[in-house]
């Protein structure tokens, strides 16, 4: 879910900023489409690859920590048993209940290592890290939402005030994505939506101003 929200946020905001910059420079709708699509593809691939490498690095780290824990369980069982005992003692277990829990956990080395990974190191299981899936979700989300600011500029739309319509629709989409992100993260969805909308507005306004300024200088 996080990958999809990340891709959606960046896709729609960066593309809208590009549209605003080109519009500020008073360039044609064709240029908007060309530069916008180039941005979607290039930036989408860049984000996807960055997410892939980041997720893979996390996965490699978790795997290395698991190997270390497996070695310690195999070669230092007394120390690792005491660590399990301390973990559950801190949780309020004591006496026979504590020893029963320790016995059950240490009876299975895989379960033992899993507990150490989660409760001692605070690391997620390897299965939660999927680099290719994360990259694909990020790219697709970036592509789908990144196209939204370009829709009004497509050749078959014979509408006036393209930038105004794009601004309204994009603003609604940005707010919706921000609000959804707030719901997922259990935050105030209205505040999350407004925060994301503010980021989009600042980005687009800056791009528009720069485009207008450069067009007068060049």
UniProtKB/TrEMBL annotation:
Keywords: Membrane, Transmembrane, Transmembrane helix
Pfam families, sorted: VIT1 (PF01988)
Keyword tRNA-binding: no
Recorded GO CC terms: endomembrane system
Coiled-coil portions: none
InterPro entries for this protein: Ccc1_fam
Regions crossing the membrane: 12-42, 135-157, 163-184, 196-215
Molecular-function GO terms, alphabetical: manganese ion transmembrane transporter activity
Localization annotation: Endomembrane system
Chief localisation class: membrane
Protein's UniProt keywords contain GTP-binding: no
Membrane topology label: Multi-pass membrane protein
Biological process per Gene Ontology, one example term: intracellular manganese ion homeostasis
Descriptive protein name: GMP synthase
Organism: Candidatus Terrybacteria bacterium RIFCSPLOWO2_01_FULL_40_23
